[in-house]
Amino acid sequence: MRFLVLGLAVAAIACDRTTEIDLLAPTNLTYRLEPSGDPDLPAGILLQWDPVLSSGLEAYEVYSRPGSSGSFDRRATTTSTTFHDIGVPDLEYYVTARTTDGRESAASNAVYIDERTRMARPATLTSTSLDGAIYLGWSDNAFLAAPSAFKQYRIYSTFYDLDADVCEAGWILEGTTVAPEFLVGALANGISRCFAASAESHVGDESVWSPLRADTPRPEGRNILMFPLSVDANASGFRFFDDANGDGQASRIELGLVGPGGSPSADFWVYRDGSNDIFLVPQRAGVRVAVYGSVPVGGLTSIDFAPETGYATTGVEAVPGWGYVFEMPGGDGFLRFGALRVTHASADYLIFDWAYQTDPGNPELRSMGTVETGVTVRR
Fold it and tell me: Which of helix, strand or coil describes residue 10?
């Protein structure tokens, strides 16, 4: 009988020791921040750790403190191996395991939310206006500086007030990408927007934004075929935008119209001289044309701002590879601007690409450039 009692006592001690041994501290505590667009104000933090394998485990206790010193406060109790803390996180966190009988393990490893791990911000941001879209590109310096820490780039946008030079409040996330480029689509032509890019690390630390960029999508057309008036009078005139309603708005789809060169509503017509050279001649009242730059342009998107001077009502020779800008009156009292790049010119026909800015008075035909300095940013 004495041996039986002794055996039961030894078994009880062994059971207690097994429970104590099983009550190990949680390990591999990691975190991931939730970017908000403001690197100083993350939307939250997600903690995650390896499970403690013990039959006596009841829950985990999450502790944190806002500074590098002082006592830790119990943040939460959870049965999961993750914890989502909404809002700006504390500076330091650790986790313990608790058994059904109220015993608590030692602390896990602590994690520090250290902003010194933040990615570098994209140093530059460029844009190209497209038809119903904006193409963005930026320097890849964030990835190149820390490839192992880099996760992705984040792209933001909001409305831009051209007259007030203001990026309005209400920034939205357009998307994310691992490449230093992004195409923002499904945009309304003639409506200006501000853009910014940031870099995000694997732990969710978001960089300061890149320089801001404002841009305005505009309609365009490619490979338009026209003829000199003496070859085909009915296909010798061109109208960028037929504002028949007089409201200055693209209320009808009447863009890039090829028609009679003799029509007073044509913006310009194609003329062939005695040497078989081809000319673009302004036609409609108030329309003027200027050669863009002093060298050929690589493409339609190389024509950015409409020039402030150099316009004339007389014709200019259409030379392949060169760009031209037309200044035109709108029905609302504001000027409009159109771009044209000649791809082929012969004695019998002309082929060109064109773009037109529907935003009243906006000289932007490709991109407006960086607007970080001298612009009000509202979040």
Answer: helix
CA–CA separation, 36 vs 53, rounded Å?
35
Q: What pTM value is reported for the model?
A: 0.80
Domain 125-217+367-377 in the same topology as domain 2-113 = yes
| Residue boundaries of the structural domains of the chain | 2-113, 125-217+367-377, 220-357
Phi, then psi, of 100 in degrees rounded to 5? -65, -25
Contact 302, 308 (CB under 8 A): no
**Interatomic CA distance for residues 264 and 298, integer angstroms:** 32
Rounded to the nearest 5°, which phi and psi values hold at 300? Answer: -60, -40
Topology, domain 125-217+367-377? Immunoglobulin-like (2.60.40)
Q: Residue 340 above 50 pLDDT?
A: yes
Distance between CA 49 and CA 63 in Å, rounded? 13
Token duo for residue 266: 């044509």
Neighbouring residues of 83: CB distance < 8 A, sequence distance ≥ 6? 46, 47, 60, 62, 75, 76, 95
> CATH class for domain 2-113?
mainly beta
Gap between the Cα atoms of 353 and 341, Å rounded: 5
Where residue 221 falls among pLDDT bands split at 50, 70, 90? very high
